[in-house]
TrEMBL record:
Keywords: Signal. The lineage of its organism: Bacteria, Pseudomonadati, Bacteroidota, Flavobacteriia, Flavobacteriales. It holds the Pfam family DUF5689. NCBIfam families: choice_anch_J. It comes from Litoribaculum gwangyangense. Residues 1-39 form the signal peptide. Residues 59-295 form the DUF5689 domain. Gene3D superfamilies: 2.60.120.200. The keyword Signal applies. This is DUF5689 domain-containing protein. It comes from the Bacteria. InterPro entries: DUF5689.
């Protein structure tokens, strides 16, 4: 019994000792915390962004940077290198955002907030290549930045001016461990006003800048598509934006990594904001949006042409109303005679007679049109038949053949009008419907073959009509191709 009491007493002593030590620990921790805080004021980290202390005489203009690259190229170099011993900066505004995934490891900066803010520096923009994801967390849209150019290289990639680290004749990325030494944040986040411009007015000077297109829509043949979620969208989705004002077009480019890639393209018409750029291979102009909030297509009055369809006839008529195989035309001269109206609405290229042998042979003498290397900003050419009276007989049909020499960005349509007055000035104001049943060669078709239109039924149309073959270039003369036409016949 005495032993048990001794053990019990020892436990009691140990318990009291533990309690005493616990109290001492709490008191010590309290004293330690109190010693780290002044007057119970718990300070938050200082998140203030200070204006970088850069001498004003060390900040150059975008135009001067561009001129330096042009001078280097004139001397036979691909790039312009800014020496490590040079103290040189530019300041601009971020107009790209990778938050939705449509941009990746790059910043687009431009030198103007808006075009109502005049400066001596023309409106320009540059792409900065940085090996860092989620750049918009640091450099959000509208953030004014100062770029330390010392040790960087200026060049061209994918058709636009790029700033990065020199890698031979190429432009490499600024790396993660150093990018904040080159891209300096300022406290200012500006409201960026896009330049409102029409598609046909865009020039190289607008590349890498934030623009807005009004009164535009996605081409009617692509309304069933997503932004970039189709099986053939390998790296990017390309959808055609067309102007309701003058039918000019530009390609909407969307990355297959964008979080909105699987959304259906907007069905209505309206305005769209984005960065004007070039495609990966520098073949054609593109518009790249930061997110779908850049698109406001809220007008349900689309500007699609009227679509006319009587179907495909089972057989071609045996009585002819109009025909031409162009064999009486003069080679390399504009198509003329036989009632044709050969009208150039825009540009310098019209329909002409030609003959060729070899893998892309003509059918004797054929008609062709194309804007390739024309240097035209816009190309629209019409070849219109004489008037055809569809009331004097029944079961009229149309047939023709088409071929192409890599049509690429250009387009050809077959149209019909019942109200054209026969004058060139009246072409643009007349009502033209698309004969949707007629097959026209596609860019994916073999360039060495001729393709039948099918026997296009015209029997559901009445009155006196005109049939037009209309060529429209994309505005990219180095990318547009050529269409060829022959063996036209209207019968009943």
């Amino acid at each position: 019994m005495k032993k048990k009491n001794k053990i019990s007493n020892n436990k009691s002593i140990m318990s009291n000792s533990n309690k005493f030590l616990t109290v001492l620990s709490v008191l010590a921790l309290t004293v330690f915390i109190a010693s780290c805080v002044n007057d119970d004021d718990y300070n938050l980290p200082d998140l203030t962004i200070n204006e970088p202390n850069i001498p004003s005489d060390k900040i150059t203009t975008f135009e001067a940077v561009k001129s330096r690259l042009e001078q280097a190229q004139a001397n036979g170099d691909d790039t312009a290198i800014i020496g490590l011993d040079e103290e040189l900066y530019i300041e601009g505004y971020v107009v790209s955002s990778d938050r939705s995934g449509n941009y990746f490891e790059e910043l687009i900066i431009q030198n103007k907030i808006d075009d109502s803010n005049p400066t001596n520096d023309p409106r320009l923009g540059f792409r900065i290549s940085i090996n860092v994801a989620s750049l918009s967390d640091t450099y959000e849209f509208g953030r004014r930045v100062i770029v330390n150019l010392s040790g960087l290289t200026i060049g061209e990639a994918n058709g636009v001016i790029v700033i990065g680290k020199g890698d031979g004749s190429d432009i490499g990325q600024i790396q993660a461990f150093e990018y904040k030494d080159f891209i300096l944040r300022t406290p200012e986040v500006a409201t960026i006003t896009p330049k409102i411009v029409s598609i046909s007015e865009l020039t190289e000077a607008d590349e890498n800048t934030y623009i807005q297109l009004n009164d535009v829509q996605i081409n009617r043949n692509e309304l069933d598509k997503t932004f970039a979620g189709e099986p053939d969208d390998e790296f990017d989705g390309f959808r055609t934006i067309e102007s309701c004002e003058n039918s000019s077009t530009i390609i909407l480019q969307t990355s297959t990594f964008a979080d909105f890639k699987s959304l259906q393209v907007p069905q209505l018409k309206g305005s769209i904001k984005g960065i004007f750029s070039r495609d990966f291979r520098d073949d054609f102009n593109v518009l790249i949006i930061n997110s779908t909030s850049d698109i406001v297509f809220d007008n349900n009055e689309r500007c699609d042409p009227i679509e006319l369809s009587c179907g495909i006839a089972s057989s071609q008529g045996t009585n002819n109303l109009f025909a031409d195989n162009f064999e009486t035309q003069i080679r390399n001269a504009p198509i003329s005679g036989n009632g044709w109206t050969n009208y150039i609405q825009s540009g310098t290229e019209g329909w002409e007679a030609y003959s060729a042998t070899g893998s892309n042979a003509s059918l004797g003498i054929s008609a062709r049109v194309g804007s390739f290397r024309s240097n035209d900003v816009s190309t629209i050419a019409w070849l219109i038949t004489p008037a055809i009276n569809l009331d004097a007989q029944e079961n009229e049909t149309l047939v023709f053949k088409t071929s192409n020499s890599f049509s690429d960005g250009s387009n050809m349509e077959v149209l019909l009008s019942t109200d054209w007055d026969g004058t060139e000035s009246g072409i643009s104001t007349a009502t033209w419907g698309v004969l949707t049943d007629a097959y026209i060669t596609q860019d994916s078709d073999s360039f060495s073959s001729w393709f039948d239109s099918g026997i296009v039924n015209l029997s559901c149309v009445s009155g006196t009509v005109y049939i037009a073959f209309k060529y429209t270039g994309s505005g990219e003369a180095d990318f547009d191709g050529t269409y060829e036409l022959d063996d036209i016949s209207i019968d009943f």
